[in-house]
Design a protein that fits this description.
The chain has 268 residues and is mainly alpha-helical. It has eleven helices and no strands. The relative contact order is 0.15.
Amino acid sequence: MTFVNWFKRNVVVIAGLLTLAYLLLPNVVVTVFSFNRPKGRFNYQWQEFSTDAWRDPCGVSGLCESLGLSLQIAFWATLGATLLGAMIAFALVRYRYRFRARGAVNSLIFLPMAMPEVVMAASLLTLFLNMGAELGFWTILIAHIMFCLSFVVVAVKARVMSMDPRLEQAAQDLYAGPVQTFLRVTLPIAAPGIAAGALLAFALSFDDFIITNFNAGSTVTFPMFVWGSAQRGTPVQINVIGTAMFVVAVALVLVSMAVGNRRKRQKA
């Protein structure tokens, strides 16, 4: 009876831990097999412990080149989507009474999120071919910006809607100009939403395969390299890169949490 009562009190926590373990299990498998030395081409069965792949993560031809290209595309796509998305979000929230096309823009912003990714990829490919554009770096970049834009708008819009306009009015009452009010008051308050949208855009751009595969031409990004390698054999270095990126992402989250807790303690 005691166990039943304990289980009822902690059922939500147990469910959350099981869900977290389920989500992290693939990362654990990738990390473990990054130290494997397979006897064949496929890194699917554990053979013996080895750190050779960690000592030479670029040992596979084209791996680091595709990784660098994906990081470059993700950076510029994040920058472009964040700038455009932040401006659209401010226009939709702050000028909703003067912005007559607000309803139509909201619907158009939502469409890329609701539309199947393969449909958007085929549509962009048709657009580029009709324009006579050469498929490659720039077509991938434009496609990624268009794909990530909606997610940035949603993230920034939610943050801007929660802002108290009286703070900006108080800054104006203290003789702050429009630019000074935006830089000193509006932008710092909206910064968490902008940062969240930027991180989401970076992750979506770096991880995207379908849109990239349609509009890449002969250009090979990291997800495309992984897909191509899986047809011939999965090198251990792919697991090494995946583990390293997972560790960096977790480290960034932990650092941001530590900084946030420190600021809360200083304010208290």
